[in-house]
Amino acid sequence: MSFFKKRKGKPLITSHNHNKEEDPQKLFPSIEDNIKYICDAFYNTDDLKMRDVTFHEQHGKLIYLETMADEKEIQRSFLVPLAEAEKGKSIKDLITSTESNISTRLNEVVSALLTGNCALFFEGAPDVFLFNTFQVNVRTPEEPDNEKVVRGSHEGFVEKLDVNINLLRERVKNPRLTIKYIKLGRETNTNVAIIFMSGLANPSVVEEVQKRIESISTDMIFSPGYIEECIEDHPFSPFQQILFTERPDRAEAHLMEGRVAIMSEGSSDLSVVPVTFFSFFQTPDDYNIRLYTGSVFRLLRLLSFWGSLLLPPTYIAVVGFHFEIIPYDLVTLVKSSIENIPFPPFFEALVMAITIELIREAGIRLPSPIGETIGIVGGLIIGDAVVNAGLVSNMMVIVIALTAIMSFCLPSYEMGNTVRVLSLPVMIGAATLGFVGIVFALMIIIIHMCKLDSFGSPYIAPLAPLHVKELKDAIVRFPIWTLNRRPKDVQAQKPVRQKASREWGKNDR
Are 245 and 147 in contact (CB under 8 A)? Predict the structure, then answer.
């Protein structure tokens, strides 16, 4: 079944029935046949480059992955010695002098290209010559500030597209990792890469992503946000439908699920499609720590989303409409806190929410030492001042502070922005109709979420449509050895991820 029925039967790529990486194919006599074999093994990825070379009137072809090999090293260690070689000197003498290797099997050539080597073919030659030209990153990839983890990798993407693809290829040493380059921006000519696993990613999704990106007509592509607004299904929805990450390990995990990634030159963000609502609450730490701990923390993030959305409206509804549900022991405390406040609870919450956002925005824009100072000192001074002035109650300060903390617990910056935007209409509903207004607002939000999709994938899958088995890695995390199948919403070509089973430890209870 295809995501996009109108495109059914028109896949962008064709699946291969055999794995050429494992095929011990000997060299063909013809260069064209050897090049065709390698291009097919790499699924015609766009970062596979070829150059014509000539040695003593003998025609040859040089092939390499530009995201793994260093072109300056190719020039220094191979092309220059080749051009300066004396007449009568054989190519094998040149290979020996440059400390390179010789192979006779194409599967070895494919593996060598994945590790940064370049391969040299000559017409009719029984051997292929391999040169180690591995690319060394100029800038050391550092861990992203907004996606820190306790355990696992601490690498992050940078603003150089070739370096980022190099980081992915170092993790996924598989010729099925396919890169498709597209130039966007009539004036800027920004290089955009579509990254996916051939034979694993759904061809309909790959074709749809490529079609939408190619349809973008603009003078400039400034950031991934430009691409996002042009290709997402529901641009006016407050919910994020494309996942951004700066972590190679997280990108690797999504690629191996069968999803498609998009990267552009000049940005360290990688966009992932299709995704679901629960994808924004998963972090690499969930799989690097103990089972129960990871499940509890993921559940805590989900509760933080709904808590930050509902806590201020609930307080407004209780104080304004349903005062009778407050426990008797707390009535006096709450009453003394709000009785001298001249404003209604909605206005209190609105003022405090705007104040928190102002402090947060100022902390982001200012230099780091000053930003930390204004975030702590400014918050304490303003909070204490508005309470002493009688403008806001103590209870409201506590509620807004808890709401801000819960919104900061969300691992996705975009989802944190979403919950802050949605809190305003829910507070309006609470201020007008109390709990009834909250229920109406929640119904509208949930109905809207049920109608959303991301490149054909239901947004709140596996809850709607309900797939009970898929819940093993949604709200909580089951043991890794039970996650045998890829998510159904991705519709990967290979639904089975692993066939591992755990037979030991059954009597450990």
Answer: yes
